[in-house]
């Protein structure tokens, strides 16, 4: 017989274990059913024996009772399978005694053996026995009389009773509970009647089941706090009222104060929840003196949880806290780092709106991760951050995305997170495993779009929408700047010279920083190709929009009310122009004009340094050099890029 492999042995053992577990489960079920049946059968026997022992202790058995016992124990009653007539048996005359004779449940009387033929055993009728009054000790042993009724107070008004009965059976609606919570607020000088909040340290350590149970208890305590607040308002008004009779006022106060005290006791007795300030001198922990006491305390808590399980749907409903937004999270993080509140707005201004939009994605994922894992998002450790980044990496995130997450987390966790060598080592590993790659492996030829725009001439006869799209597309190709920069061009910053147009960008853009120069756009006049001259197109656009312009921005909407447009509108116009020219816009976006223009200029011999300067890259930037070979040529012409794009082949 061949030997089993390890995998076969594991499968065989696993099947045997499952088979034994099923067998053990069936045996336990049978034992449980037997125990339940025996407990039901023995409960009546135990009570009968208890009652018999008590009565025998108080009243010794009388002679007829002993006679019946002897009679039933005789051999004549052993065989009950056949029916036979029993001869009368004379018993000695019992003495007159007021004692009570009791026949227990396990004794068989002649009545049990009667058939259709009447038995000859004659038991004389005894006179009715009057029960003796039991003393207090006997009553204490027997316990309270279950037949006694619950004591009720005097009936209240019918209309009031019907409404209270409806509330007790159907409860309050969610809207009504919310209204009552807003109407009866907790008084400021007795805030301890409210539901205490769980400590953040405990909240981060407990499980979801414990959190749901605590939320249910908190909801009940809040409802009781509302009831106490309502009684407190009535009591306050009664105390402040000096016109009423003093005696009546005392009676009213007594009737109102007693339910309030009872409600407050109820709110803390069945399900105690400690406040954030822990009292080390009292409570269950103070009574623990040994290991057995601690074990007993744990057993009591477990029994309490099983006896009072948390509600499946506590009222009001408690769900996860919703995402507060990027700005709120950053503000709270700055306040936790002891930044003065007066300086928060100034520090928030250091973040650009686009940066906040980018960080919002990362912080939302971080918020959900911390909620799911019960982690404080403002005090997370480096291993926790690494676990979060690893989950994002496993979900398909690239190096740029994870690097953005690192920057967003450093904003709320502190600069130590970015400087930690473990985070840096992790990102270096991601860079090697998933290196950043260019968005386009190839680009389109600018001559395709220029030939399309060449046919749209003269400019004065074009529709405003067509002229607007032509102007913004020529400006994007001749400057190689982002659409964000083009959207910030203002008319007062346009300087028209005899040979060129110079445009200054005064607003802050993506690359703006301290001690850095703002971009300057220089556009020459192409007299040999006026059809695609960007400078002449700008002049025509300014002339056409002069009467309808309401804004100082260069580009306005071609439709009423002709307001200034954003960078998204410029991107859409450029993309539509590319599509009409024959460019595949499913691959290339409006930002591809920056890629196509710089590639064309480099091919025509423009130096990388001037490409950087014109397109808005820094002098030491290697972004352009990552995708194209550097070919240095001697040129100092500021209009070299525009000339190469528009005049080069």
UniProtKB/TrEMBL annotation:
Residues covered by region (Disordered): 253-293
Coiled-coil portions: 10-37
Gene Ontology MF term list: DNA binding
The Tyr recombinase domain, residue ranges: 434-641
Domain of life from the UniProt record: Eukaryota
Keywords for this protein: Coiled coil, DNA recombination, DNA-binding
GO BP terms: DNA recombination
Protein name from the UniProt record: Tyr recombinase domain-containing protein
Provenance organism: Loxostege sticticalis (Beet webworm moth)
């Amino acid at each position: 017989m061949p030997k089993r492999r390890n995998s076969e042995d594991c499968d065989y053992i696993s099947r045997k274990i499952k088979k034994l577990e099923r067998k053990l489960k069936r045996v336990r079920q049978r034992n449980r059913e037997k125990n339940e049946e025996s407990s039901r059968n023995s409960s009546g026997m135990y009570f009968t024996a208890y009652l018999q022992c008590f009565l025998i202790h108080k009243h010794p058995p009388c002679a007829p009772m002993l006679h019946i016992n002897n009679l039933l124990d005789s051999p004549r009653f052993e065989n009950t399978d056949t029916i036979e007539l029993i001869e009368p048996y004379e018993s000695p005359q019992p003495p007159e005694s007021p004692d009570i004779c009791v026949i227990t449940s396990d004794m068989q009387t002649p009545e049990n053996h009667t058939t259709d033929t009447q038995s000859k055993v004659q038991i004389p009728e005894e006179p009715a026995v009057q029960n003796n009054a039991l003393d207090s000790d006997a009553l204490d042993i027997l316990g309270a009389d279950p037949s006694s009724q619950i004591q009720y107070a005097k009936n209240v008004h019918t209309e009031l009773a019907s409404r209270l009965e409806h509330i007790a059976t159907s409860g309050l609606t969610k809207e009504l509970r919310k209204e009552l919570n807003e109407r009866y607020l907790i008084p400021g000088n007795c805030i301890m009647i409210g539901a205490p909040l769980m400590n953040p340290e405990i909240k981060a350590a407990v499980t979801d089941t414990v959190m749901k149970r605590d939320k249910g208890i908190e909801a009940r305590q809040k409802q009781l706090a509302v009831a106490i607040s309502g009684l407190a308002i009535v009591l306050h008004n009664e105390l402040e009222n000096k016109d009423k009779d003093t005696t009546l006022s005392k009676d009213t106060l007594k009737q109102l104060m007693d339910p309030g005290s009872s409600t407050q006791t109820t709110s803390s007795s069945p399900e105690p929840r400690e406040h954030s300030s822990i009292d080390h001198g009292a409570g269950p922990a103070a009574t623990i003196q040994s290991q057995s006491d601690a074990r007993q305390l744990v057993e009591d808590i477990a029994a309490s949880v099983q006896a009072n399980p948390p509600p499946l749907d506590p009222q009001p409903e408690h769900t996860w806290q919703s995402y507060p937004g990027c700005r709120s999270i950053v503000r709270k993080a700055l306040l936790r780092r002891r930044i003065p509140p007066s300086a928060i707005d100034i520090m928030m201004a250091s973040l650009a709106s686009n940066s906040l939009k980018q960080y919002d994605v990362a912080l939302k994922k971080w918020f959900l991760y911390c909620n799911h894992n019960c982690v404080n998002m403002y005090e997370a450790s480096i291993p926790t951050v690494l676990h979060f980044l690893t989950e994002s990496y496993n979900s398909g995130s690239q190096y740029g995305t994870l690097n953005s997450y690192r920057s967003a987390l450093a904003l709320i966790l502190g600069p130590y997170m970015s400087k930690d060598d473990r985070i840096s080592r992790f990102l270096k590993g991601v860079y090697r495993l998933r290196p950043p790659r260019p968005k386009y492996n190839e680009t389109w030829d600018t001559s395709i779009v220029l030939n399309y725009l060449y046919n749209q001439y003269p400019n004065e006869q074009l529709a405003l929408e067509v002229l607007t799209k032509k102007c913004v597309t020529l400006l994007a190709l001749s400057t190689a700047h982002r659409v964000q920069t083009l959207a910030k061009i203002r008319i007062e910053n346009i300087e028209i010279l005899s040979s060129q147009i110079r445009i200054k960008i005064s607003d802050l853009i993506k690359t703006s920083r301290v001690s850095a120069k703002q971009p300057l756009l220089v556009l020459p006049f192409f007299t040999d190709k006026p059809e695609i001259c960007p400078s002449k197109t700008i002049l025509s656009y300014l002339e056409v929009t002069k009467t309808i312009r309401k804004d100082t921005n260069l580009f306005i909407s071609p439709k009423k009310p002709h307001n200034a447009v954003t960078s998204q509108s410029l991107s859409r116009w450029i993309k539509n122009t590319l599509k009409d020219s024959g460019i595949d816009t499913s691959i290339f976006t409006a930002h591809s004009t920056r890629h196509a223009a710089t590639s064309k200029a480099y091919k025509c011999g423009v130096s990388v340094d001037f490409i950087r300067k014109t397109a808005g890259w820094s002098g030491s930037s290697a972004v352009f050099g990552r995708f194209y070979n550097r070919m240095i040529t001697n040129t100092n012409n500021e209009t070299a890029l525009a000339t190469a794009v528009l005049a080069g082949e």
